[in-house]
Every structure is written in structure tokens, then in C-alpha cells.
Design a protein that fits this description.
45% of the residues lie in helices and 0% in strands.
Length: 71
Amino acid sequence: TNIDQVIFIGCGDEANVSPASFRKIVQSATKALTNSKASQAVSYLAEINVTGKSFAWKVKHHTEAAAESIY
């Protein structure tokens, strides 16, 4: 595979990522991706520890926040 671009998103202190902060992180990443020339992308943001939230919650809110930031 050929990688042309990697986008890094600062997430702050991983031990203190709140649900609201997680959504802002996903929205920032989506906006950066939208402004790039990328035709494919992979996100590992659901791997971030979000205080009191499950993996399923993170995937659901990742999808919602990404969709909201595109419109």
C-alpha cells in the first residue's frame, strides 16, 4: 500500500476525555479529513478511553459526530 498522508489529531490528556470532548475530537478529525485530498481513511478514535463509556457508545457517537460535521 502507498500512504500519501497521515492526519494526527491532538486529544489532550487521555485519562480525562469526556463524552463531549470525544465528540469534538471526532468532529475535528472529520473536518481535517474533509479538507484533505484523501479518498480513503481509517479512524482509530474509538480506541480512546472516554470516561464511563463503552466501546459501543464510542462507535455510535463517532458515527454521529462525523456525520454531523460533514453537513
